TrEMBL record:
Its cofactor is Mg(2+). Residues 567-619, 707-759 form the PAC domain. The keyword Membrane applies. GO terms for molecular function: catalytic activity. The chain crosses the membrane at residues 12-35, 47-66, 73-90, 122-140, 147-169, 184-204, 216-236. Pfam families: GAF_2 (PF13185), GGDEF (PF00990), PAS_3 (PF08447), PAS_9 (PF13426). NCBIfam families: GGDEF, sensory_box. This is Sensory box protein.
Length: 1101
């Protein structure tokens, strides 16, 4: 199983158990770090889990998770946790304090007060076992490791469950080792969850191993034995601790009794001295008395009396008066009894030595200071106790501390504490004592220890015996299975050879030395027509073979007798149905175990079909020769009808190319070996990609999709060739295509002709489109814009420009600009190019203007289109084409086209461009001539105003528009008054000039969109649209009448003339153009009859 195998759903329960343990330990760690006891105790009043224990459990749970992700991470986490447990056990066993408890813990936390911070030895033991199991799983794949890792986690599971049971039943011995910190309930629960999780993982991982090797019994023996002896060890250890503490308690009480006696002696001696002070002795007598006290009491350090503090000190105490005064000042407060104040003082003035101070303040003051260290040490010596260490405290003051050499490991676990309360002291004296190493060694439970070790050894031996027994049983089972399997295979081999023997194509016959039949195979019986084998056994071989040729029979017998061997003897055998078969006989002796001939093996092989086979081989050889001849003819036909052929085997990757095909690409068969990559190497990439795609479609469709494509190949000299490639897949009987054959036809000449024809078609199409556009468009400028777009799109130019000569006639300006539609800022380019203006002698347009012919300029170091490039930075020009439009031997305009880097193909055929320019020039001339004729047909030559025909067409158009828009159209009929008299008086030339002058006056008086025309003679028509009312028409009519000056001066002649106007309005006066004209004419007649020089509206109807 791989690491990913541990991600199966059946392992989710294991990871859930580890997750619960992880959460419990993580909450405890938060409690330690934050100092919140509720977290560390999980809200209960139970003992807190140690910080190191919580950290180790978090690491173990993380290692369990990592088993499914990355084993290296699991190993690292397990090593870290295991080292914590190993170092902790090392501290317990060696007695050294490595400080591990403070390396992994923030010291002096709030929860630390009152709780030990080191994990218990059974807790460290469980941590080591769990991590050892994980490391064995990750690193060792041996058989013993598979057993050991499951035993370890099962042992931890039992220890955890036992500890939980001890907490439930309140049996401390189960979860607590005497003198050591015990395993707390939270730790026991986490160990139970983790061990259960790992047990399930290991069991699923090695299920076949555990079930096949009978490991359940072995594991049960080991786990039960180890668990029993561990609990037994805890019980023995607890009994030893109880016995040892009893002895320590007795020694402690003895020392306390001695100290009590010494202190009582000091108390009564002090009372006697203070009573002598009260008797009024002089200082000399008191000096003598104090000296006697100091000599008699070795524990007495200082005696002082009087107001001046006269003092004496003992031989072992050297206190200055300053120090004595300082100590006396500390004796003012304390326990008061029988006229004395009793205080224990400790100050730097005494060098840190504690003193018991008795102060007397009634009458003459006095003070006596006893050295408490000497009091305690004397009592210890007198008690003669086997103690290693002793510590005596009075409140916070350490009275005495002593440790001897050779302390046993962790002697504090055997420490005993005793309190001594004296009636003249406020606080009790606190004793803490440790036993000596000798006593500890003498009172160790050696017999239980040896018994436990022997029991563990017996448990291991029992498990090994059970393991070996299971292994023997398994080996016997495997051996039995192997023997059974080999016997079965041997029988199968025997049966197989028997079938081969019986069904062999050869005829086998075994005879003894007298040539009597002993055995034969089924083929012999079937061939010769025998039914029962027992009818043949014992008969003479010659009777069975039924050989009719006596000479042949004797020859066979003689050769057998002489050599015992016959090789390749042909003979005819007749079967029971009188059918003869030609046989090849071989005879070989059969040797027994004593190297004596015991019989002969007759082997017959039917050779009746050898002649048929020979004839068939001859026929095949003839067919092969015929095939080679036909293939040569076929190759010749293909070479003559095509430019080569090819044959590809898709499975073997074999590629056969004809010699003509290789020569068409510049290769010879002798110096080039074609491969399957021949087409890829010589075809254009884009064409080969399409060919490869069509070939796949052809194969998938079983040859129905046609393989017919034009492909560009690269000749050996680098010249491109156009090849028509056609192929057909050969469908095998299994409906698969494994071979594809095809032909190549060189169509380069055809493609060149098609290209020429395409260019000619392009030329004719451009000529047709441009000339038609010029002739059909209203203005030549608009036509040139369409022509620039058409030419640019056809020849793939980026920008097209049309230059015209400006009004001054000395410069060319870009009036029309076209560019390829694309995203970007091409509009800015168009605006910039429209501002381009050059002289006739500069730029591309200037060269065309001077030479009057088309030119093509490619990009070079001297940029020929730098002017255009400066006005359009969004294109990178790579070439320019320009040609003139010539009308009446003068250049009318210049077309200029610029190509960018995307369309950099040069224009090589300038003859086509010249022809295009010539045809466009002719079209422009025709357009200009047609425009001139059209103007003459629709305008009055004298006044340049539209004539009657143009006016009537415009009136029809206006009426149609008004009919759609439901609006009005006004028609004014204007006629000059007394014009005939002007002609008669001054002549027609004055009349003509008068008409011109009057028409100019009329044009200056009307709006831009009003339409003024000359009807005939001195008659004019004015079409008015977009007016608001009749008043507007009246104002316009008055403005027209007033526009004629009085007099009109013509060549110095004063001419008097006026105008009369008849007005008709559509649709009120009439609904057609002719009718409206008649109405206006009638209104004009009305004005003429009433006095002229006025206007009149036609009545509706």
């Amino acid at each position: 199983m791989t690491v990913n195998g541990l991600r199966s759903k059946r392992y989710f329960f294991c990871y859930a158990l580890a997750a619960v343990a992880y959460l419990i330990a993580a909450v405890v760690m938060i409690g330690w770090i934050t100092g919140v006891p509720q977290f560390s105790t999980l809200g209960t009043n139970s003992t807190v889990m140690r910080f190191n224990t919580a950290l180790s459990i978090v690491l173990i749970a993380s290692a369990v998770f990592a088993l499914a992700l990355k084993k290296r991470l699991a190993i690292l986490l397990s090593l870290l946790s295991g080292l914590i447990g190993v170092f902790t056990l090392f501290e317990y066993t060696s007695g050294w304090d490595l400080g591990l408890d403070y390396w992994l813990l923030i010291p002096q936390t709030a929860i630390d007060k009152g709780y030990p911070i080191r994990m218990g030895p059974n807790t460290a033991f469980c941590i080591v076992l769990l991590n050892a199991a994980i490391l064995l799983y990750c690193l060792v794949k041996k058989t013993w490791a598979k057993l050991l890792q499951l035993v370890l986690v099962a042992l931890v599971l039992c220890l955890g469950l036992a500890a939980l049971l001890g907490y439930v039943l309140d049996i401390e011995i189960i979860y607590n080792w005497a003198g050591y910190p015990g395993m707390v309930a939270q730790s026991a629960l986490c160990f139970t969850l983790l061990s259960l999780s790992l047990s399930i993982i290991f069991y699923y991982r090695y299920y076949k191993f555990y079930s096949s090797h009978g490991m359940a019994q072995t594991m049960a023996i080991l786990v039960t034995g180890f668990l029993f002896f561990i609990l037994l060890w805890q019980n023995f250890l607890n009994d030893a601790a109880v016995q040892l503490r009893r002895k320590i308690a007795a020694d402690t009480q003895l020392i306390a009794k001695e100290i009590e006696v010494s202190l009582h002696d000091s108390f009564w001696a002090t009372r006697r001295f203070f009573s002598r002070l009260d008797h009024g002795l002089n200082d000399k007598a008191i000096h003598e008395d104090a000296a006697n006290y100091l000599n008699d009491l070795s524990t007495l350090a200082v005696i002082a009396w009087g107001q001046d503090v006269i003092y004496q000190h003992g031989r072992m105490d050297d206190l200055t008066k300053k120090n004595v005064l300082r100590l006396i000042s500390l004796c003012q407060k304390g326990f008061k009894t029988q006229g004395m104040t009793i205080t224990v003082v400790e100050h730097e003035a005494s060098g840190g030595v504690p003193y018991l101070c008795f102060a007397h303040h009634e009458g003459r003051p006095g003070w006596m200071l006893y050295n408490l260290q000497r009091i305690v040490s004397g009592a210890v010596k007198r008690a003669d106790s086997e103690l290693t260490g002793l510590a005596v405290h009075y409140g916070p003051v350490a009275l005495f501390t002593q440790f001897n050499r050779g302390s046993p490991a962790f002697i504090h676990r055997w420490a005993y504490t005793e309190l001594l309360q004296l009636d003249f002291l406020t606080n009790p004296l606190v004793f803490k004592l440790w036993p000596s190493p000798r006593y500890v060694a003498e009172n160790r439970p050696w017999l239980p220890i040896i018994t436990i070790l022997l029991g563990l050894a017996i448990t291991v031996l029992l498990s090994l015996v059970n393991l070996l027994r299971n292994k023997v049983v398994m080996d016997n089972t495997q051996l039995k299975t192997s023997i059974t399997d080999k016997s079965r295979r041997l029988l199968e081999v025997e049966s197989r050879y028997q079938r081969i023997y019986d069904n062999s194509p050869d005829l086998y016959l075994f005879v003894d030395r007298t040539c009597r039949v002993v055995e034969c195979n089924q083929t012999f019986m079937r061939t010769l027509g025998f039914i029962r084998k027992k009818n043949l056994i014992g008969q003479s071989i010659f009777d069975v073979l039924n050989i009719k040729n006596t000479m042949l029979e004797k020859n066979i017998m003689n050769r057998i007798t002489a050599t015992g061997v016959i090789n390749n003897l042909e003979l005819d055998l007749m079967n029971q149905f009188d059918s003869t078969s030609r046989m090849m006989l071989k005879v070989s002796p059969f040797i027994g175990s004593d190297n004596e001939i015991i019989g002969y093996l007759f082997s017959f092989r039917d050779i009746s079909n050898i002649k048929a086979l020979q004839e068939e081989l001859a026929s095949k050889k003839y067919s092969e020769n015929l095939f080679q001849e036909n293939k040569a003819i076929y190759d010749l036909i293909l070479d003559e009808t095509t430019d080569g052929w090819w044959d590809i085997n898709l499975e073997t990757k074999e590629c056969i190319l004809s010699s003509k095909l290789l020569r068409s690409l510049g290769y010879e068969r002798g110096n080039y070996t074609p491969t399957l990559d021949f087409f890829r190497d010589h075809a254009f990439p884009e064409d080969f990609k399409l060919l490869e795609s069509n070939l796949k479609k052809h194969i998938v469709s079983k040859g129905k999709y046609p393989l017919h494509q034009e492909v560009r190949y690269r000749h050996r000299n680098g010249k491109p060739l156009w090849i028509l490639c056609r192929g057909q897949g050969i469908v095998d009987p299994d409906d698969k295509i494994r071979r594809v054959v095809g032909t190549h036809i060189d169509i380069t000449a055809l493609k060149f002709t098609q290209e020429k024809l395409s260019l000619k078609n392009l030329e004719l199409d451009l000529i047709f489109k441009t000339t038609r556009t010029i002739l059909m468009t209203d203005t030549i400028q608009d036509a040139f814009k369409f022509c620039a777009a058409t030419i640019s799109q056809a020849i793939r130019f980026a920008v097209g420009i049309v230059y015209y000569l400006n009004s001054d006639g000395d410069r060319l300006h870009a009036d029309t600009v076209w560019h390829q539609p694309a995203k970007g800022q091409e509009d800015a380019c168009s605006v910039s190019l429209k501002t381009l203006e050059v002289n006739k002698q500069e730029g591309i347009a200037g060269q065309v203007w001077q030479g009057k012919k088309a030119i093509w300029l490619p990009a070079s170091t001297a940029n020929p289109f730098s002017l255009e490039q400066g006005h359009c930075a969004h294109f990178k020009f790579s070439g320019a084409l320009a040609f003139p439009i010539i009308v009446a031997d003068e250049i009318y305009a210049v077309f200029e086209f610029l190509s960018d880097e995307k369309h950099a193909e040069p224009v090589e055929d300038l003859d086509m461009i010249d022809l295009l320019a010539a045809q466009m020039s002719l079209a422009v001339e025709r357009k200009m001539a047609y425009s001139q004729l059209q103007h003459l047909a629709l305008h009055d030559e004298l006044t340049k105003l539209p004539n009657r025909r143009a006016c009537m067409d415009m009136l029809d158009l206006c009426i149609s528009r008004a009919m759609r828009n439901k609006s009005e159209v006004g028609l004014m009929f204007l006629d000059l008054d007394d014009f005939k008299e002007v002609n008669d008086t001054y002549g027609h030339h004055v009349g003509d000039q008068l008409l011109v002058a009057v028409s100019q006056c009329f044009k200056q008086s009307i709006r831009a969109h009003d339409y003024l025309a000359r009807l005939a003679g001195d008659e004019f028509l004015l079409i008015v649209t977009d007016f608001s009312s009749y008043s507007a028409l009246s104002l316009l009519a008055k403005r027209l009448i007033d526009s004629i000056p009085h007099p009109v001066v013509i060549d110095g002649i004063n001419v008097e003339v006026s105008v009369s106007i008849g007005i008709a309005v559509y649709p009120f006066a009439a609904t057609s153009a002719e009718a409206l004209l008649q109405k206006a004419d009638a209104a004009l007649y009305k004005v003429k009859s009433e006095g002229k020089n006025s206007f009149y509206f036609s009545n509706p109807g």
